[in-house]
Amino acid sequence: MSVTTPKGFAAAGVAAGIKASGNTDLAVVLNRGPRQAAAGVFTRNRVQAAPVKWSRQAVEDGELAAVVLNSGGANACTGAEGFSDSARMAAETAAALQVPTDNVAVCSTGLIGIRLPMAAVASGIAAACGALSAEGGADAARAIMTTDTVPKQAGIGRDGWSIGGMAKGAGMLAPGLATMLVVITTDADVPATELDTALREACRLSFDRADSDGCMSTNDTVIVMASGASGETPGTEEFTAALTGVCQDLARQLIADAEGASHEIAIEVTGAASEEDAEVVGREIARSNLFKCAVFGNDPNWGRVLSAIGVTDAEFDPDRIDVAFNGVQVCIGGQIGQDRALVDLTGRSVHVLVNLNAGDQGATILTNDLTYDYVKENAEYSS
């Protein structure tokens, strides 16, 4: 599935000449309506790229007709000229599509601190707008890749309506989004206010819990657009759950492609006093370089898990913590458990289960994947 799977959307990806490699590097996604509802979530980094500043303004009224995206240059830390370049990208796209300029969002990804080659960008926009089609989703997903090794797409179909999405990102993946660009489309008839609420919840349970290297980007953008072309209006809970599923699928694909990664670790925290405590614990474990090094070396060093938990302000009793690696209970009640030699960490997938309140299963708060982190030579990731 792709961003053009839902009805009412067209997309294209072209080689504009931004990348020296000659690979595709510019994409456009168009919402043909009848509804043009939209919502966006952006990086929490205080240093924000020009396209982020532009797109925040563009989506503020809850409407977008299109998104134009480029790889090969982040247009970040480029000053007033960079903002003008983002505005020009929106204007060129709007003129080609005959839509209002302030209804076009802009996304850029690549190196920070360089101006975009605007002549190439402008010609690429013209080419992409001329090539828009309902089959162009895959081309658009390839055009936004930077150090990604594979394009990332996901989707879900429901009774009469669907959601499709694409993402890019392979490094600087940390809570607070990541160095990611994500465009999600749906043909469900959902107003902008509900889109915004659903997107924020979906990001909270997916991209905000993905971590590859603890670094937060300047360009992170997640945009969702609703065309209403299906004529179906799903319930709020149903739509939010479906959107969350698509975002979690894309988040896992980002982690699987993280630069230098050798393992994908899912950290599951139960027995916490609150979801906040569970998230704090999961994130601290994922951020521990000692823990990452251990997993990279195929060592189920549960002591490093406990030491990470111990520096948090979460509520727990050190003598009631259980830790399991891939189903082997290596720590029971804060002490030695099963033989760690029974744990096999040679595969790519690793599951770490932490119970902060062993013996009181009723206290389980969180069972979904928490934080991803990545393994570069001697580092790695967790979910």
Automatic annotation (TrEMBL):
Q: Which GO terms describe its biological process?
A: L-arginine biosynthetic process; ornithine biosynthetic process
Q: Which residue positions does the secretion signal occupy? A: none
Gene Ontology terms: cellular component: cytoplasm
* The reaction(s) this protein catalyses: N(2)-acetyl-L-ornithine + L-glutamate = N-acetyl-L-glutamate + L-ornithine; L-glutamate + acetyl-CoA = N-acetyl-L-glutamate + CoA + H(+)
Kindly list the residues the record flags as site (Cleavage): 178-179
Q: What HAMAP family does UniProt report for this protein, alphabetically? A: ArgJ (MF_01106)
Q: Could you give a GO molecular-function term held by this entry?
A: L-glutamate N-acetyltransferase activity
Q: Where is the active site?
A: 179 (nucleophile)
The reply to whether Transit peptide figures as a keyword in the UniProt entry is: no
InterPro entries cross-referenced by the UniProt entry: Arg_biosynth_ArgJ, ArgJ-like_dom_sf, ArgJ_beta_C
Subunit details: Heterotetramer of two alpha and two beta chains.
Q: What is the source species? A: Tessaracoccus rhinocerotis
User: Which residues are listed under the site Involved in the stabilization of negative charge on the oxyanion by the formation of the oxyanion hole?
Assistant: 109-110
Q: Which domain of life does this protein belong to?
A: Bacteria
The record's listing under PANTHER family reads: ARGININE BIOSYNTHESIS BIFUNCTIONAL PROTEIN ARGJ, ARGININE BIOSYNTHESIS BIFUNCTIONAL PROTEIN ARGJ, MITOCHONDRIAL
Q: What is this protein called?
A: Arginine biosynthesis bifunctional protein ArgJ
Pathway assigned in UniProt: Amino-acid biosynthesis; L-arginine biosynthesis; L-ornithine and N-acetyl-L-glutamate from L-glutamate and N(2)-acetyl-L-ornithine (cyclic): step 1/1; Amino-acid biosynthesis; L-arginine biosynthesis; N(2)-acetyl-L-ornithine from L-glutamate: step 1/4
Q: Where in the cell is it found?
A: Cytoplasm
Q: What does this protein do?
A: Catalyzes two activities which are involved in the cyclic version of arginine biosynthesis: the synthesis of N-acetylglutamate from glutamate and acetyl-CoA as the acetyl donor, and of ornithine by transacetylation between N(2)-acetylornithine and glutamate.
Q: Which residues bind substrate?
A: 146, 168, 179, 259, 378, 383
Q: What is its EC number?
A: 2.3.1.35, 2.3.1.1
The family assignment reads: Belongs to the ArgJ family.
Sorted keywords for this record are: Acyltransferase, Amino-acid biosynthesis, Arginine biosynthesis, Autocatalytic cleavage, Cytoplasm, Multifunctional enzyme, Transferase
- Please state what class of enzyme this protein is: transferase
